[in-house]
Design a protein that fits this description.
single chain; 247 residues; mainly alpha; two-stranded antiparallel sheet; two-stranded antiparallel ribbon; 8 helices; 4 strands; globular
Length: 247
């Protein structure tokens, strides 16, 4: 019979993987948060960078669930648990992109198919740079998240859950924003350095805001899990996760 620990991991992993995959598939649509004319300039010494308007991919919408799932898996299953769900997500994302690519090869039935090849490709296709950039950024940011999470945990003696959960997300998502925009857009020459920095700042600002907003949900999730497992079992899992995640 499946134990409560296994059921918990399966539940958290399912939400993590599902939302990570959804974010990849819907990421091609861009939206503007707030006033489309809002912007300001930042001076970096040798050049100025325009920050704003706040243009984001709709792929960021499911990421709060990814953040929350990562923090809870980090807390109860440690580095090994995060590595497992990250590997699963990467394999499934690659598989999905492969299937999408294969389905784009045959022509749509002209006059019959309600979706044309052009419309199908415009919605579902992603450039190779975006695919590579998003996967590398995802893996690297997850590795950084685990390291920072458990560094904060040791420094605080297991106290201040908000610091290790929110702090690790803030640090790891800086890496994520810089890497994905750099590989997907700056390196191929689609944007210049000033635009790259501006987009990175706006994307990172959104992620920091979300990380702070969902902090109460981390405490709620922690409390529900402790009640589900029992305080003694939950504490044992947390201690084991911390011990097995030593750098």
């Amino acid at each position: 019979m499946t134990s409560k620990k296994d059921k918990l991991f399966l539940f958290l992993a399912t939400f993590f993987v599902a939302n990570a995959i959804i974010a990849e598939i819907i990421g091609g649509k861009l939206i503007v948060l707030g006033d489309a004319s809002f912007s300001f300039m930042l001076n970096f010494g040798i050049f100025d960078t325009q920050v704003g308007p706040f243009i984001l991919s709709v792929g960021v919408i499911p990421w709060p669930i990814v953040f929350l799932s990562t923090d809870l898996i980090n807390e109860y299953f440690g580095k090994k648990g995060v590595r497992q769900i990250t590997n699963i997500a990467v394999v499934l994302i690659l598989y999905i992109f492969l299937i999408i690519y294969l389905t784009m090869i045959p022509d749509a039935a002209e006059g019959i198919s309600p979706v044309t090849d052009a419309a199908y490709g415009q919605v579902l296709s992603q450039s190779m740079w975006i695919i590579v950039g998003s996967i590398i950024a995802f893996v690297v940011s997850q590795i950084v998240d685990v390291l920072v999470f458990h560094v904060f945990r040791r420094r605080t003696g297991g106290k201040m859950l908000w610091m290790r959960a929110t702090g690790s997300t803030i640090v790891s998502q800086f890496i994520d924003s810089v890497v994905i925009l750099g590989i997907a857009f700056y390196l191929p020459g689609k944007i210049n350095l000033s635009q790259y920095l501006g987009f990175a700042i706006t994307n990172y600002s959104y992620k920091v805001l979300i990380a702070v907003i969902i902090t109460p949900l981390i405490y709620l999730g922690h409390g529900l899990i402790d009640r589900y497992l029992g305080s003694e079992v939950a504490e044992e899992m947390i201690e084991e996760a911390a011990a097995n995640s030593q750098i």
